[in-house]
Amino acid sequence: MAEKVSTSYFLKRPRDLVEISRVGVIGAGAMGSGIAQICAEVGWKVTMYDAFQESLKKGDESIRDFWKKGVERGKTTIENVESWSENISLTSEISIASRGMDLIIEAVPEKIELKKSVFREIEVFAPEGALLATNTSGLSISEIASVTETPERVIGMHFFNPVPLMPLLEIIRHENVSEEAVSLAKKAGESLGKTAIVVNDFPGFATSRLGVVLGNEAIRMLAEGVASASDIDTAMRLGYRHPMGPLELSDLVGLDVRRDILNSLADAFQDESYRPHQMLESLVASGDLGKKTGKGIYDWTSGDKVER
Ligand code: CAA
Question: In this predicted model, what pLDDT tens digit does every residue of 42-53 receive, in sequence order?
């Protein structure tokens, strides 16, 4: 549960590191920047790449902001923040985030063709021994690995938002992955203070499949008028002890992200019951993607969650 996560943060994180010391992170969105942050905190040298300068800047700011708040909350010190800062560099050249790295973690948007093109590119620059990981929430790891010459070192390493506070790492193995890659991914997760589970390469893995179905059903219930958004969320928070309701969580993760996962599940299982509800489609179409755009299921523009 959330309170357990938070108390262990910074305090009990293991410090004995695996062989990995240089990490490239591809994509500086919420996930990429969170991953870069935790790598920097355990002393790894991280190079964060994004094709867009604006995203790179935003990702970097969100890391600094988290650390600043951490100092204010007495969770860490200015000295720690200074030393972590030195571990992060930014680049808009994918080759720079790939050359000389021990581990490269891709965290670009959930579009299979985009992910495949990233893997084709990073493989050209990555050292032979580097582990190549994708943070996809539910796309086929096997399909992503298939575009490389070395699928045995391609693996799923699925982190959760907000990355610094969430204790799970979902490792996804596929038919051609090597045991060394699985064990290195597990060790990397442990070094980052995460609890790793290993799952097989099924669409949506063990987490997203359940998570998005819950969110989609909550949206259907909202559209049907079962209850208000905040009452549906309260139902799951207090009735089921979820740290966050499914609707506010959808806004946190991003409605576009959730919509894309639902569509990929519907396609992969050939089951229309996974398709995003019309209300979710409409919100995405109107650019209301959740917290990141100010509006989603809720209105977040005031800084607080307001029913729409
Ligand atoms: N620096 C250091 N510590 C910080 C911090 C900071 N900047 N910000 C927060 N913390 C610490 C707090 O101090 C607090 O610790 P203590 O309990 O020791 O005081 C703890 O983190 C929690 O912070 P808050 O009290 O501010 O927030 P909260 O208790 O409301 O928890 C949450 C926030 C962890 C996000 C919680 O609401 C939660 O677990 N929500 C569910 C999130 C979730 O389900 N994520 C998965 C999404 S799906 C996904 O990501 C998959 C995908 O592929 C899309």
Answer: 999 999 999 999
Q: Output the CA angle 206-207-208, nearest 5 degrees.
A: 115
What is the CB < 6 Å shell around ligand 1? 2-3, 5-7, 9, 66, 69-70, 73, 75, 137, 160-162, 165-166, 208, 211, 243-244, 249, 253, 257
pTM: 0.92
Contacts of 47 (CB under 8 A, 6+ apart): 22, 23, 24, 25, 88, 89, 90, 91, 96, 97, 101
pLDDT in tens, 266-282: 999 999 999 999 999 99
Q: Which residues pair with 156 in a beta bridge?
A: 134, 172
- Ligand 1 atom closest to 65 (CA): 7
- Residue whose CA lies nearest to ligand 1 atom number 26: 6
Residue 195, beta-bridge partner list: 168
